[in-house]
Automatic annotation (TrEMBL):
Gene3D superfamilies xrefs: Periplasmic binding protein-like II
Keywords linked to the UniProt accession: Signal
Record carries keyword Signal: yes
Gene source species: Caballeronia glathei
SUPFAM superfamilies from the UniProt entry: Periplasmic binding protein-like II
Any one of the GO BP annotations: thiamine transport
Alphabetical list of PANTHER family matching this protein: ABC TRANSPORTER SUBSTRATE-BINDING PROTEIN, THIAMINE-BINDING PERIPLASMIC PROTEIN-RELATED
Protein known as: Spermidine/putrescine ABC transporter substrate-binding protein
Length: 347
């Protein structure tokens, strides 16, 4: 079994809490994405739980794939108590037996139905959605109206201005591919329309395929990127940096992109881990997360900020329109799709 390696900040916190003066303080480890999400949780969300329960919560940051790899490497004796993973990776985590069922409670019953997985093995703590973002400065210069449909990616006027994340490495890119595949008559069980029609439609407009969304900021500022799949939260992060980007929800609906929580099976303190999981699902915590990090709630009783309400509209109505993809089917076929995408689309 491979040893569990804490990142320097987490290791420092662990050492500090091991001193005699603080030996009675328990530590919980929470695996999750770093960046703005980690900052919001560390500064404005987790301190309330720590104070109420007399514990210290240390975040172990990483991508969803990295965190799942840590769980699998330490499956017999895990040191992480709770993890937050993107829904596609979480589906794999459940099938690999690294999650235990969430305790029943009022928080679960307050969630939107799509935020609860079968058997309550996991639950969504943050509602994301992949829609369309566009370069507002470029669109103004060209006199283009904002996009309204996934089909806009095929419009010849956007030739050389579409940036698409690779469907083989990015959930945003995969979502975009699957929605266009649906428009062409396909489904998760039949991606032939997408692969057959792509190169003669969307492919003609793509200036570059990128492995993730990190390069979009630069490409918007240089005018290379005009249209691309993105989430409202990611678009908001770019706007906060002064990048001329806006998000729209396509008329066919955006694609559901949940951040799910999992209480790790066989973790060292299952009772406290379940308490942390329930805390993260609560309406008060998710309201705070919306204020601190523009995170869209999965709890129907939570509130969004006014800017979020203005951008997204009524969340109850939006939740009815969101498209849900079948990750069980996707994960079985994904290796073959990835090979075909790399060979046929990004060759």
């Amino acid at each position: 079994m491979k040893p569990f390696h804490l990142i320097p900040t987490a290791a420092a916190a662990f050492i500090a809490l091991s001193s005699p003066a603080q030996a009675d303080v328990k530590t919980l480890y929470l695996g999750m994405n770093g960046g703005p999400m980690e900052k919001a949780y560390t500064s404005q969300i987790l301190p309330d739980f720590e104070k109420a329960n007399g514990v210290k919560v240390v975040i172990v940051p990483g991508t969803s794939s990295d965190i799942l790899a840590k769980l699998l490497a330490n499956k017999a004796k895990p040191q992480i108590h709770v993890v937050l993973l993107d829904d596609g990776i979480m589906s794999r985590a459940i099938s690999m037996g690294v999650c235990q069922k969430l305790d029943d409670g009022p928080e679960l019953r307050q969630l939107y139905p799509f935020a609860r997985t079968k058997g309550d093995m996991t639950a969504g703590v943050q509602l994301g959605m992949t829609g369309i973002a566009y370069n507002t400065r470029l669109f103004k210069e060209k006199g283009w109206a904002p996009p309204t449909s996934w089909a806009d990616f095929t419009d010849p006027k956007y030739a050389g201005k579409v940036v698409f994340q690779s469907a083989s490495s990015s959930t945003f890119g995969l979502h975009g591919f699957l929605m266009l595949n649906r428009l062409w008559g396909g489904s998760e069980k039949n991606v032939e329309p997408g692969f057959t029609k792509w190169q003669q439609s969307v492919g003609k407009n793509v200036v570059e395929y990128i492995p993730n969304s990190a390069k979009i900021s630069e490409m918007v500022q240089t005018g290379e990127a005009g249209l691309f799949p993105l989430t409202p939260t990611a678009a908001g992060d770019l706007q906060e940096k002064g990048i001329p980007v806006a998000y729209v929800s396509p008329k066919e609906g955006p694609v559901l992109l949940l951040v799910d929580e999992c209480v790790v099976a066989n973790n060292p303190d299952p009772a406290l881990a379940q308490k942390l999981a329930a805390f993260l699902l609560s309406a008060s915590t998710q309201t705070r997360a919306a204020e601190a990090g523009r995170q869209i709630p999965t709890n129907k009783e939570a509130k969004m900020t006014e800017p979020m309400n203005k951008q997204l509209g009524n969340l109850d109505e939006l939740a009815k329109k969101v498209n849900v993809v079948d990750w069980d089917v996707i994960n079985v076929s994904r290796p073959q799709w990835d090979q075909r995408w790399n060979r046929q689309i990004e060759r």
